[in-house]
Amino acid sequence: MDGTAPPPPPGPDRRPPPGTQIRRSTRDDTGAFVELMEAVAGEGRWIGRELPLDRDERVRSFEAGVDDPERLSLVATQAGRVVGSLGLSHDGMGHADLGMLLAADARGLGLGSALLTEAIAWADAHPVVHKITLQAWPHNTAAVTLYRKYGFQMEGYLHRHWRRRNGELWDAVLMGLPVTDRT
Q1: Which CATH number covers residue 164?
Q2: What are the Cα distances from residue 177, in Å, to 2, 94, 97?
Q3: pLDDT tens across 36-47, in order?
């Protein structure tokens, strides 16, 4: 692929298990979201946040995303339990930054695909957003593969960019997906 045209949208995928719901976040999800973020941060491999989290800051940030109509905040639930989250916030210049996390026992079940499908539809319908951007760890091959499946392209590589609490410097890949042609 030469990077000039996005691939067609993904075809039928593995469907999330019965009892799974993808929906807009509400303030009632705040506690469950913070617990999910703490669990994923505790793994130390998949997201930029590390333990200990500033819970008050995470609550403020999550609730700001829920309350702002110019942001998208989604949760994935299974049997009423929040097992995934996706946020999109745009900068007013047409770029929407994506962040997503899934509970360890919810990975590989199609929830990332379901969340991304909703996020791409939201961005495509947004009057300003023309591109979704994200950063991922290069070692998170499952996430990078998922993003590629949805048409995201590698747009850059940040060498030794993110300092971890243990002093290590981690690389990050930059990925982007044009969602509309608003020229």
Answers
A1: 3.40.630.30
A2: 14, 12, 11
A3: 999 999 999 999
